[in-house]
Amino acid sequence: DKEELKQLVNDKTESKDGVHVELAANIGTPNDLEGVINNGAEGIGLYRTEFLYMGRDSMPTEEEQYEAYKRVLSEMKDKRVVVRTLDIGGDKELPYLNLPHEMNPFLGYRAIRLCLDQQDIFRTQLRALLRASTEGHLSIMFPMIATINEFREAKAILEEEKAKLKDEKVKVADDIEVGIMVEIPSTAAMADIFAKEVDFFSIGTNDLIQYTMAADRMSERVSYLYQPYNPAILRLVKQVIDASHKEGKWTGMCGEMAGDTTAIPLLLGLGLDEFSMSATSILKARRQIKNLNKVEMTKLAEQALNCATQEEVIELVNQVR
Ligand code: PEP
Ligand code: MG
């Protein structure tokens, strides 16, 4: 089995009927790159930069960040690297930030909310990213976007830092795509509006599921409500993908669901363009997609959208798996 999978390392990912999708990897540090390359990822769909900030007692400097981003971008060469800006808060804490204790940290001061408030932190990261942008194929992604105003503000800050660097005669790539994570239901609901302004979406199902079902992703007691295949989630995913395609944009997914063998037939059918997962899941996902017919999966997904429960959806998928 392992040998059979290895044969697929350099293959493109195409369905049986010839539709290409991109299989990318999620990484936390540059040290994950070896696994990414050995497993034949077509890019990096999520670089969780918060690990640069964790396990230490002060902020990483612009220079430290620049070195990390440069390494990832240059090793991935022309393959796309989607770097997510700092997503701290929720379950991830930074002791040296002295954040106030909150009743509901997952609904609190985190990610882009913190970055727009403490702009020095955000601007330092953006500068490091922009400086590294000439080393490879960089895309920038903002986490936990809830409103279009947050996106506009974050993008404006990015443009300001770009302009400053250009004034300082620092080279910056001019084709950097800027996208958002769709992990808050309000953003999925407004996907058509967002699609006119962002370059891409990446659906963060780990959070999208918890916020849609109002079920804490860390709580065992309510874990029965954590339902990736619930038609409510599938409908949101469809809405986001359709909205992006209408504007000629692409949609990826970087939550756990993207590498899940039960979800993959449905996501292919819904028209997902990029699947980003842990490197060790990539070859299995590639083999699975090669054996699926996209036209048939579109019909399967349509049926799934009209199911009443997650159980019905699972039963449906099991017939083709
Ligand atoms: C997600 O929410 O699906 C996601 C990919 O981000 P994280 O798991 O880092 O919150
Ligand atoms: Mg998330």
From TrEMBL:
Cofactor section: Mg(2+)
UniProt GO molecular function: kinase activity; metal ion binding; phosphoenolpyruvate-protein phosphotransferase activity
Stretches assigned to the PEP-utilising enzyme C-terminal domain: 2-292
Residues reported in the UniProt entry to bind Mg(2+): E183, D207
Keyword tags: Coiled coil, Cytoplasm, Kinase, Magnesium, Metal-binding, Phosphotransferase system, Pyruvate, Sugar transport, Transferase, Transport
EC category: transferase
Catalyzed chemical reaction(s): L-histidyl-[protein] + phosphoenolpyruvate = N(pros)-phospho-L-histidyl-[protein] + pyruvate
Residues that bind phosphoenolpyruvate: R48, R84, N206, D207, R217
Catalytic residues (UniProt): C254 (proton donor)
Any one annotated GO CC term: cytoplasm
EC number: 2.7.3.9
GO biological process, one term: phosphoenolpyruvate-dependent sugar phosphotransferase system
Regions crossing the membrane: none
Major subcellular site: cytoplasm
Cellular location(s): Cytoplasm
Coiled-coil features, chain-numbered ranges: 148-175
Family note: Belongs to the PEP-utilizing enzyme family.
Function: General (non sugar-specific) component of the phosphoenolpyruvate-dependent sugar phosphotransferase system (sugar PTS). This major carbohydrate active-transport system catalyzes the phosphorylation of incoming sugar substrates concomitantly with their translocation across the cell membrane. Enzyme I transfers the phosphoryl group from phosphoenolpyruvate (PEP) to the phosphoryl carrier protein (HPr).
Protein name per the record: Phosphoenolpyruvate-protein phosphotransferase
